[in-house]
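2024-03-11 09:14:02 DEBUG pipeline.ingest accepted 1 chain
2024-03-11 09:14:02 DEBUG pipeline.ingest length=499
2024-03-11 09:14:03 DEBUG pipeline.predict start
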Amino acid sequence: MSAQAVAARAGSGSSRRLALAILCAGQLMVILDGTIVNVALPSIQESLGFSPSNLGWVVNAYLIPFGGLLLLSGRFGDLFGRKRVFTTGLIVFTLASLLCGLAQNPAMLLGARFVQGVGGAVTSSVTLAMVVTMFTEPKERAKAIGVYSFVQSAGGTLGLLLGGVLTQAISWHWIFFVNVPIGAVAVFMAQRSLRAEEGKGKSKSKSTDAFGAVLITAALMLAVYTIVEASGYGFGSTRTLGFGLGTLVLLATFVIRQAKAQDPLLPPRMFKFRNVSGALGTHTLMVSGMFSFQFLAVLYMQNVLGFDEVQTGLGMVPVSLLIGLMSLFLAPRLIARIGPRSVLLVALVLIAGGLGLLGQISADGAYLTDVFPATVPLGIGFGLAMPSLAGLAMSGATPQDSGLASGMFNTMQQVGSSLGLAILSTLAASHAGTLLGDGTARSEALTGGYQLAFRVGSCFVLGALVVAAAVLRNPPRPGNGPATSTGTSRPADSDTASA
């Protein structure tokens, strides 16, 4: 289906805005549940009797299927219709949330969290694709991607605040129960308001790449599992290296399969366009570094500054507000004026600088002098970076492949956040342990570990800056090149060999 046909079927501007609100509501629930449990973990441990070694699986049981199924779910959206995939994911996610809230023992909670991760992946995988196919006019698309990016980037910090409030005011069960009415309304509204897009379906002359689907799903799940467990076993352990080798074997087999398959799950053409590959690489590195703020700043405020759950959540509010202001209002205008690549480069400098400021925190510091100054460049930078990256990543995708591109974009975010969490938390804990062994006071040792992790996170973002500057290009403005079926020109993104 052409972009013009999709736009015609999308109806009036008001109906498209309603559809955008529904898509973002579903995406917000999914993103919130990646972090909302963090501040509730002590209460969950006490209530259900989790052992300290197993408590982390309340988070990991969600992350592993979520990271592993995004790519496959995005392709299913292209094949069988994105509305169908989106609503199916919402239903699974909502029902799993109810089971999480009703959990009476660790096994029940972990099983429900796994299913919740499956539903989250299916829902999230096609959301960005549906946004870009609904809004084809460049200015409208920039605004829509800004709204999506706000939900995507600010949802994690909002989850910390909401999790703290619900846990303290009612109980940890309600961090899951709150999804049920929201999810039910979203499913109802999605069925009534979202326009059904016909998937390209299974070719009569070609078979669906079922074996490739099994390979990439297993590879991504094993990769996320290896990363999240590496912090406990060590990156140089036999276990981590063995699972890492297994992941590489599965990925290599998948690549060979895609080169030979008649109808590959991940067509090699997706990597011909430098903006697609460059945006995915930049996104992975940026999220790996930025996640050090979302995770380690929380630990610093709680373990060193002595904040409780609600105070910690409130401490993250300035970042969410700045991300919202930038992504909703300023980013679309700047992108239209100077292009997404230029905006992204400035944003990455701001993010790296913000993490560098956090690398100077002190054990006897205060929120206003140690944390708040960093929230300004971080909030502005991330609010500008996400819309720019999303637009660049989707600029090389045809309407037929936009679901896959959306799934790839979200997969890199999940892999990047998991990788950042594993590496940076391990560095922080290891350095703090060394300092404690040398007789350093606990607060100073913890602060030293966080400082090191923030500095390394800043280096990750600087790496993203190098990739973005070297590979990415501003897509030509409308009318300056041959138009593609998405309504935007793409000659700059078709530079393949030079990438």
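2024-03-11 09:14:41 DEBUG pipeline.report The chain has two domains: 3-196+263-494, 207-262.
2024-03-11 09:14:41 DEBUG pipeline.predict end
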